[in-house]
Amino acid sequence: MNRVGEESDKYINDLSYQIMRGQQESLLEMPIGILIFNDEHVVEWINPYLQPYFDSSEVVGYPLDHSAPDLFDIIQANLDQTKPFEMTWRGHKFDMLVQKEYNTVYMMDITHYAEIESKYENGKIAVGQIFLDNFDEITQSMSDQDVSNLRNYITNELSSWAQEYGIFLKRIDADHYFILLYVSTLNQIESDKFKILDVIRENTSKQNLPLTLSMGISYDDNNLNNLADQAQSNLDLALGRGGDQVVVKAKDKEARYYGGKTNPMEKRTRVRARMISHALQELMKESDQIFVQGHAQPDMDAMGAAMGIRRIAQMNGKQCWIVMDEEEPHSDIKRLLNAIDDYPDIKESIITPDKALKKATDSSLLIMVDHSKPDMGVSGDLYKRLKNRVVIIDHHRRGEDFPENPILVYIEPYASSACELITEMFEYQSQDADPINQLEATAMLSGIVVDTQSFTIRTGTRTFDAASYLRSAGANADEMSDFMKESVTNYMDRNHLISMMEQIDENMALITAENDKEYDSVIAAQAVDSLLTIDGVEASFIVFKRTNGNIGISARSNGNINVQLIMEALGGGGHLSAGATQIPDESVSEVKKTLLGAINKIVNSDDEKADK
What we know:
Elements: H1 2-29, E1 33-37, E2 43-46, H2 64-67, H3 69-77, E3 85-89, E4 92-99, E5 104-109, H4 111-122, E6 125-132, H5 135-139, H6 144-165, E7 168-173, E8 176-182, H7 183-191, H8 196-206, E9 213-218, H9 224-240, E10 245-248, E11 256-259, H10 270-286, E12 290-293, H11 300-315, E13 320-323, H12 331-340, H13 344-349, E14 350-351, H14 353-359, E15 365-369, H15 380-385, E16 390-394, E17 408-411, H16 418-425, H17 438-451, H18 461-472, H19 477-484, H20 488-499, E18 501-505, E19 508-512, E20 518-519, H21 521-530, E21 539-546, E22 551-557, H22 563-569, E23 573-574, E24 578-583, H23 588-611
Parallel strand pairs: 9-10, 12-13, 12-15, 13-14, 15-16, 16-17, 19-21, 20-21
Antiparallel strand pairs: 1-2, 1-5, 3-4, 4-5, 6-8, 6-9, 7-8, 10-11, 18-19, 21-22, 22-24, 23-24
């Protein structure tokens, strides 16, 4: 029995030794780097796999921040990470796991696999469409020879650009091109900010033929049909934002925008206005009732546009409800509502979102005016209820957050206001119907006046035509002036905000309001508008606390600086010369820092690019 016991002990000891030796060999030979350090960050041990990545042999027994300070910083920044993460060190890519409680780090070199993945991603196909925004408008009065010369110039310029980057380019119409390229090429073009946009615009402008391009490019899908559909959607988005820009977007990912830094040219025609008007009439006739809503906290343009749509519905024998929230309106809207008291038919058509939701049926029609983002509307629930029966009439550049299935879209960034677009529709209504009344005409003209700052910005010949029509329809200038009047408190608040102006650049001004005082958004907008009258100021911004508790930013420019891009970077939107956004759960001072960062990134980077 003793002999059996001795042999058993020997077997167990040998087995234990072999296991320990196997563990040691595994630690030494496994293709994973292991680094152990003490509480003072002195390296106690590393396995042979990791040793070659260090520059010197002074590793074990030395503080890690001495032998590899860059690696030390990475470890310190990720001490609380409980899962493996990717990082780059000494030109290699690693999967790293930090075990804080054991002072141990595991590192696997995945550079080879990362390179394979990169080659695979870069070798994917991207599909694009190029459209000459205003080719028809520019060439309609040109001779055939001049049109041919212009077409040849554009094709040659695009061909040279395509050859430079190795892009397949095919012209499919006089103003339409198709491109195929690799994702790696797309990345290169994006880093160059699609310089072809500037080349075409600047060279054609020198010939007094200011032609611009729009592109939609899609990627990250193995199905070519899906890529083509997404490219078309991206092109539609670029055109809806005013043209002269590129939209790069994969399905279910955020869009990237390039260009769009110039004022859009007038491209809408009377023919399009008539077609939209007739299409809207047909949709109204097919519906049992119409709901129209502007954006939350409506201004004169949103309210005037809603009243205009109500009148058009009435001209077509349909009931139209104006949906308004129950929040305290701005002073001008409050005065308009008081005036509506004398018009029972209009007053009875204004209902709350809850009432609208109860009235809505599957055959109802929802018309969104002066906005296209669903979350900006008065009633998100009403939009969800009628999301497949939506019409959009807006003059702001289209954003990425857009209704999925609108049945009619009339977005014209070249128009001054939604009221201007809707005013043009009256021309195509039945002459036997009751015409627009004095209050409706006054409200719509007020919307145009407010959005154009008394015809000083975003004003074209069609704007004056619309204003003339409304004036002839009975718009009352005195009543309009009464709507615009402000209280003593508002007047003092606006001047107080202006007094807090500071110059953040030689051509930009900023108002930073108090952290603890709320301001009406209209007063803030008026204050930031007034800064553009200062000599040398090309863009102005205000950061203030809104009455709903969010921090608001309003931005204005004279057209030389695209404030829309800045506001979009902060979650908002608008025009090239006017934009806004709201940011919750932050202070005025915190939002100011964020705004300055966005200005520096977007405006100053463009200035640096222009200087090169």
